[in-house]
Every structure is written in structure tokens, then in C-alpha cells.
């Protein structure tokens, strides 16, 4: 009985120390991770519109928008650019989609990250999928990827949601 009590106490102390160390290092690295993500997003925005400056992208207030997939919205010239994270087969996809304010056509699409099945779900990161999105109506029929329908359908649903938000912003 005494041995079980000592082992339980030892495991409790080790758990408290490990939990405290994890919390400390999480707090220490969180700002660095956030800055790296913001830097990657700025680089992607400039990849979408190489003639722009970072200051040209104006944040749109999200307080009136209820969405679990829209992370940020930027306004740039005649476009709204949505930073979205959608659930897919496994971990989902984070992407930027630029929608023309006037006709709801997709101007640019760039997938930032995808945690789904390698080779299938990750096809949403590839050039052919990107090109198949651009120029099409954001609120219309968009192609999905055969064999990766869960991942690509989630992206398409996210784009449809962004299109409905564009209509509500105007």
C-alpha cells in the first residue's frame, strides 16, 4: 500500500512539472508562431498580387459575421480576400481566395496548407486545382478532385460561404 502511494505521488509530481514546462514553453513560443503565420500570410497576399504593398490590404471587421471557417477578410481594390480554414478528411485546408466584389468571380486562389491524405487530399495545393477555381463564379458550380472529394468539397463549400459573405458586405 505504501509503495502504491509513493508511486502515485511521484507520478503526480512528474505530471505537474511536465504540464508546467509545456505551458511555459507554449507561452514562450506562441508569439513567434503567430508572427511566422502572419509573415507567411503577407507573403502569400503579395504572391497573389505582386504589384501591391502589404499596406494595400485593409482588414475587414468580422464582428458581424458568424463563421467558423473565415479567419480574416481583407479588402484590396475591387476584391475581398478571405483567409479560410475548412475541415477536410483529416486536418483540413487553410487557403486564401480573392473574390471580385462586382461579379462574385474568383480572381485568385492559393492553398496555404493541407493536412489531409498525402497525394489525394493535398491535391488542393496543386496548380491544376488552383487554376480550375480562378475565373469561375464563387457562388456557382465549382469542380472537385476525383479521389479527394472530401478535401476539395470542403474548399468549395468554404468558397461558397465566402461568396455569400461578399454579398452581405456590399
Shape annotation: elongated
Distance between the termini: 71 Å
How many DSSP helices? 3
Oligomer: single chain
Q: Kindly state the number of beta strands.
A: 5
Estimated structural class: alpha+beta
Q: State the strand order across the main sheet.
A: 1-2-3-4-5
What is the radius of gyration computed over CA atoms, rounded to a whole number of angstroms?
A: 21 Å
For the structure shown, list the relevant keywords.
170 residues, five-stranded antiparallel β-sheet, 3 helices, elongated
Report on the structure:
By secondary structure, the chain is of the alpha+beta class. It has a domain at 53-169. 44% of the residues lie in helices and 20% in strands. The chain has helices spanning 2-48, 127-133, 149-169; strands at 58-59, 70-76, 79-86, 93-100, 106-114. A 5-stranded antiparallel β-sheet has the order 1-2-3-4-5, with helices on both faces. A hairpin with a 5-residue loop joins strand 4 and strand 5. The mean pLDDT is 83.
How would you briefly describe this protein structure?
This protein has 170 residues and is of the alpha+beta class. It has 3 helices and 5 strands.
How would the blueprint of this fold be written?
Blueprint: H1 2-48, E1 58-59, E2 70-76, E3 79-86, E4 93-100, E5 106-114, H2 127-133, H3 149-169
Antiparallel strand pairs: 1-2, 2-3, 3-4, 4-5
Amino acid at each position: 500500500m505504501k509503495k502504491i502511494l509513493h508511486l502515485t505521488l511521484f507520478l503526480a509530481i512528474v505530471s505537474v512539472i511536465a504540464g508546467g514546462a509545456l505551458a511555459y514553453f507554449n507561452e514562450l513560443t506562441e508569439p513567434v508562431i503567430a508572427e511566422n503565420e502572419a509573415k507567411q500570410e503577407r507573403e502569400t497576399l503579395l504572391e497573389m498580387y505582386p504589384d501591391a504593398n502589404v499596406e494595400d490590404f485593409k482588414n475587414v471587421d468580422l464582428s458581424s459575421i458568424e463563421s467558423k471557417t473565415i479567419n480574416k477578410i481583407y479588402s484590396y481594390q475591387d476584391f475581398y480576400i478571405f483567409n479560410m480554414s475548412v475541415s477536410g478528411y483529416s486536418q483540413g485546408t487553410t487557403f486564401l481566395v480573392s473574390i471580385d466584389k462586382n461579379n462574385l468571380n474568383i480572381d485568385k486562389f492559393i492553398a496555404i496548407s493541407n493536412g489531409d491524405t498525402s497525394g489525394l487530399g493535398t491535391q488542393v495545393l496543386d496548380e491544376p486545382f488552383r487554376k480550375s477555381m480562378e475565373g469561375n463564379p464563387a457562388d456557382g458550380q465549382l469542380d472537385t478532385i476525383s479521389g479527394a472529394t472530401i478535401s476539395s468539397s470542403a474548399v468549395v463549400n468554404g468558397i461558397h460561404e465566402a461568396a455569400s459573405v461578399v454579398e452581405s458586405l456590399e
